[in-house]
Specification:
about 45% helix; disordered N terminus; about 200 residues
Length: about 200
């Protein structure tokens, strides 16, 4: 039997507030708008479309939860116990697990993120396996609550993102108008634009 290397679980939902995603989304909107065609810039639906495209969306937990149960040596009292891993699939961006919605949870769940799975682990002495399942169930419920709180907070960003997209479109149209005006004036002097390479 080979040596099993286990990663140490990290606390979830204890980092920056999820509202930092608003600044990321506004930056992405600005960059994307700078590449839009004139026709898209003239379309009144563009700000809402761009806001929706870059709206932050917390991950969604999958329903096909798996488990792994192992006998393990307990370091604290040198006895043997039970290790239970709950493997919860998710879709979406994993960085939301580090962000907090409101306040940091009092008993923040700990997990390892592997690929598209959240791995919750708990150990106990052999005779208390029921408490193990209860503990993991509590952690899973906390994770669901935190993700739902993040969803509400992200949804509250919608108006600000639409307004940010509207401003980005207006700024881009202004810059294009300045370029067009300068080009017309220079062409009026008989100068010709350099051909693109």
């Amino acid at each position: 039997m080979g040596l099993v290397m286990r990663l140490r679980p990290s606390p979830l939902f204890t980092g920056e507030p999820v509202e930092i995603k608003q600044a990321e989304a506004l930056a992405a909107i600005g960059l994307h708008v700078s590449r839009l065609s004139v026709a898209r810039l003239e379309d009144p639906a563009t700000p809402a479309v761009e806001a929706e495209r870059f709206m932050p969306r917390p991950p969604t937990l999958g329903s096909r939860i798996r488990f792994r149960i192992l006998e393990t040596e307990l370091v604290e009292d040198r006895g043997w116990g039970v290790l239970l891993d709950l493997i919860v699939p998710f879709s979406g961006s994993r960085d939301f697990f580090a962000l907090r919605g409101g306040a940091v949870p009092i008993d923040a769940p700990h997990a390892v993120i592997r690929s598209r799975n959240l791995v919750l682990s708990a150990t106990t002495v052999t005779g208390e396996a029921d408490r193990l399942v209860e503990k993991l169930d509590e952690q899973l419920e906390t994770i669901r609550r935190e993700l739902e709180d993040q969803r509400r907070r992200c949804e509250a960003m919608r108006d600000a993102l639409v307004e940010g997209a509207r401003q980005a479109v207006l700024n881009r149209r202004r810059r294009l108008a300045i370029l067009s005006s300068a080009s017309l004036e220079l062409s009026g002097r008989g100068w010709r634009p350099q051909a693109s390479r």
